[in-house]
Write a structure and sequence with these properties.
The protein has about 280 residues and is an alpha+beta fold. The protein has 2 domains: about 140 residues, no CATH class; about 110 residues, FdhE-like fold (Alpha-Beta Complex). It has 11 helices and 6 strands. A 6-stranded mixed sheet has the order 3-2-1-6-5-4. Helix 1 runs antiparallel to helix 2 and helix 4 runs antiparallel to helix 5. The longest helix has 17 residues. The structure holds zinc ion (2 copies). One zinc ion binds next to loops.
Length: about 280
């Protein structure tokens, strides 16, 4: 684990003590996956094709065609489940044990959960969660997290080769997914963070990434009391919102995956305001 991650966790927890438990378990999960090797298949296409795709707004991959290492992700999920099963017994222990058993006995079980996540097939994830008696959101979170080492490897293989300056779409240039977080850099420029692969790219501030609406009357942001540096940008046309960290207000530049988990109170606020 990079010391930077621990520093970032300490920094966030100092401002938002309520995020301590979630960030610490997240760190534990990352540590559990740290030494799992993942393979990234050779993914490079012709330069001309890549340029064409970019010009026409096509990401490098579609979610369902991402060259994910399902074997590595399955090992990661199994390790996380083993860890959670050893924790003190809770209401969900039985379900976690059932899930671990499924992963170990049926080699395609975890893969079909991962595919359902990549295909955004929520009924399929729900069905898989029911099979083991686990909450759907819980299975979704843990399985998606298990994809992280492989997605990180894909991202680092692709990111430096992308001309992101030329990418002005509201979805990820690598996998085509929507952003789940954003930040304003020290100069006030807006960056979006992909909900799946974690890629980041710049995007105009006065434009909704979900519906491209530019009508300023319908765009805005709010923050919760005492948290000037954390904003929720919303759009009244499509009713969507995006949580945004204003890095001008903070000393340390914290990773967006941590900020996403440490700002769940803003999701509650946004939903109360009628955004989704
Ligand atoms: Zn992405
Ligand atoms: Zn919109």
């Amino acid at each position: 684990m990079s010391p930077h991650l621990q520093d970032a966790i300490n920094y966030i927890v100092r401002q938002r003590p309520f995020s301590k438990d979630i960030l610490h378990s997240y760190k534990t999960f990352l540590q559990l996956m740290e030494d799992i090797p993942v393979t990234v298949p050779e993914v490079w296409e012709k330069e001309s094709l890549r340029r064409l795709k970019k010009d026409e707004g096509f990401p490098l991959f579609s979610r369902e065609n991402l060259p994910v290492d399902f074997g590595g992700a399955t090992r990661a999920l199994s390790r996380i489940m083993e860890h959670l099963c050893q924790d003190k017994k809770t209401q969900e222990t039985e379900a976690l044990q059932a899930c671990l058993k499924k992963i170990n006995e049926d080699k395609d079980w975890a893969k079909s959960v991962f595919s359902a996540i990549l295909n955004k097939d929520h009924p399929a994830i729900n069905k898989k969660a029911k099979e083991v008696g686990l909450q759907t959101e819980r299975l979704y979170f843990l399985a998606k997290l298990s994809l992280k080492p492989s997605l990180d490897a894909i991202r680092s293989a692709c990111s430096s080769n992308l001309d992101k300056q030329a990418w002005d779409y509201g979805y990820c240039p690598i996998c085509g997914s929507e952003p789940n977080m954003g930040y304003l850099d020290k100069k006030g420029k807006r960056h979006l963070h992909c909900e799946l692969c974690g890629e980041e790219w710049t995007y105009p501030r006065l434009n909704c990434p979900f519906c491209k609406n530019e009508d300023q009357q319908a765009l805005g942001y709010f923050h919760s009391e005492g948290e000037q540096g954390l904003r929720v940008y919303f759009c009244r046309v499509c009713k969507r919102y995006i949580k945004t960290v204003d890095r001008r207000e903070f000393e340390l530049e914290t990773p967006m995956d941590l900020e996403y988990l440490a700002t769940l109170h803003l999701d509650i606020l946004a939903e109360k305001e009628g955004f989704e």
